């Protein structure tokens, strides 16, 4: 590299890269020091290893901040010599999206993850007391592994990690980079994928990554417990952190789901895409783990299950990362990353933590405090354990199906996922959900250790019956009974869970307030399930359209659902209970909004309800991406999404030329052959989409840009056009100057008309009006899809309630820790 | 027998049931030739033949989209999809179709497409760069 490149800003990159290496080194130092502080200096309260470990970790945290600052500086100043800035941002990107450009790429994701892990590490240094040394050994180790992911250094010809400070000329191989002046040709970055230009992209990734990152804390405690043989003590310490991780990851995942529902075009809130599934593996296993951790804390049962679930959760976090970043899901997922050359490094990441977990468990197996005695059948701990195992099974199923490409890569098979994958997931996951929700209900009536059996059956029975009645009602009203019986069972289980936990909550208000957390979380989960079930199960595409021609006889025979409807500008179409019309556009670059008017017409023909939705299409770099708009009601949502529109979007700058097309001869081609009408004032002209009323002739009409002299004759025809219930005015002009006849046509674009006042026929006392109509194919239209989602608010509300429940539980478990 | 052992057996049974049900539910990746031999749904990986026409005319039928795809073995078939033309379809580098053959047409119930420009974004648009060079 002898070329001296002009205009590059290499300093922030060098500093950033220095911080990357420093953070890696500091993490390594911290790990090693904490390791020796735990082993060699175990008995010394003032260990210099311990001090060194802390210093290392502080240094690691600071350099992560430095890294972030440098990256932000690069992006903010549009230094497109850096691949990251060039690939994900552009000059026109607003500042708040520059923030999200920060975590648009894989490197940014790792940066976010390691940042949160550093924050949590600092919290642990501050709070963990006697646990600091072993726990921080694990956290620092995890920082080391994460550090390798962004290192971007070549060792023995193998590139380790991928640095966000990679230069564009090193990332891509184009001849232009041999030009010392190449930067002057790169005026702008690639810009952000339009679907990501959304405020959810600003808050969803940080929340999600905080969720993933916080899984390290329970893991670190579990490893520390096994390593230091403090088998029992770690459990109580880990519970609040485990709850925190569940709360945050749950929030992050549902935020993603809300984002998908509000502004992506999946047509729903959950698509069972492999990347989505992968993000809930750790959540499910951690929720299961929390339950058995509590069982162990209260009764001493389920030790192995609890430890196993905590350990496997962290392995799942890495597996999730592997699935979404390695490119292995290429054939099955719409939004996984492609391979960044880190496939094996990611595999290694999963294996390191898997092997560590297995080795520790095997080594300590004989010493683990596993009870020999069985749990009582009528005890809370037994059924909590069963519930956790079922959660584990549900995760197992998700894992088996989602990992199909992994099995193919491992065993050389060529299996494809089930062809109706949504149904497959829905049915099987609902079976698990039924068991789990039922357990979250009746376990509330059991006590730890031993329960009065008759009383238990009596209360459980009464509540089950009550829930069944409510379920019957819901199922009848919403129409779920038309679906698979499993869904009715889930509805029953969820209703039961809400009612049973509602009773616990009522008791909690009477004094046993510490029980409120779990009750609230369970109620939230119950509502979430109810909402998901009704909204997904009975969502109805109301834009059904069977008017199409079907281009082949075989196609026409099929009874495929035809879910897209075509709506011409200003021509209302009946759709379900609604009269829908496309009433116009509003453009604020790069967004193109389509105004869609909905009128609900009652039996008496009156408009009962009217609203306008503005679904949009975002046009950026020649790509179009549509974003739905939704009308929210308390009990249902109307979701509308543009799937196509005409005329096709114009590239920037092209629009102006087209609008100003002056070539009259060419312009006529945009219309059908004209029809001439000889009319007198008061006559009406009928045409395809309505009629034109000739109101009168106007001798004082004016023509723009032409000065009318006394010798000129200028006549305007005052026309009123009525098309699909709308009125428009137009005044085409007829003019005689120096014996020559001119006429000035007028266009009514909204009605797709051009009108000419072409002749005056004094002998008949009539005039000739020529009507040009746009052919059907030239008229503006949109193709849209509309879906009704009933009761989806239960889903969102349930989530919020569940998060509150988690929060209350954290408070309670923290209090318990202090009391001990 | 201890209760936990019974429960353990139940869990193992369910796990096996899950695996079997998944396995029996899975379909296979195949070619158009395979699809002609079977009536069940298949996944076919291939790419769009960009030299042949894409048929989508919303004014005639908003839910009819037809195109020609070459599978990985080089076989080409007309593909019909009930729905609108997906955004940026022409840019796709790879398609994964789910569906079955009906007569000589492949009727897709699902199309998954990979647009490299959208996901890796690593295409320096040289034409664009050149145009700007001229204006300097």
Automatic annotation (TrEMBL), chain A:
Keyword set includes Transmembrane helix: yes
Taxonomic superkingdom: Bacteria
Annotated keywords: Cytochrome c-type biogenesis, Membrane, Transmembrane, Transmembrane helix
GO MF annotation terms: heme binding; heme transmembrane transporter activity
Positions of the Cytochrome c assembly protein domain: 145-326
Xref: Pfam families: Cytochrom_C_asm
GO terms under cellular component: membrane
PANTHER family: CYTOCHROME C ASSEMBLY PROTEIN-RELATED, CYTOCHROME C-TYPE BIOGENESIS PROTEIN CCMF
Protein name: Cytochrome c-type biogenesis protein CcmF
Upper lineage: Bacteria, Pseudomonadati, Bacteroidota, Sphingobacteriia, Sphingobacteriales
TrEMBL record, chain B:
Keywords on record: Cytochrome c-type biogenesis, Heme, Iron, Membrane, Metal-binding, Transmembrane, Transmembrane helix
Plastid in keyword set: no
Transmembrane parts of this sequence: 6-23
Compartments where located: Membrane
Any Pfam family hit: CcmE
Molecular function GO labels: heme binding
Predominant location category: membrane
GO cellular component, one term: plasma membrane
Gene Ontology process terms (BP): cytochrome complex assembly; protein-heme linkage
Protein name: Cytochrome c-type biogenesis protein CcmE
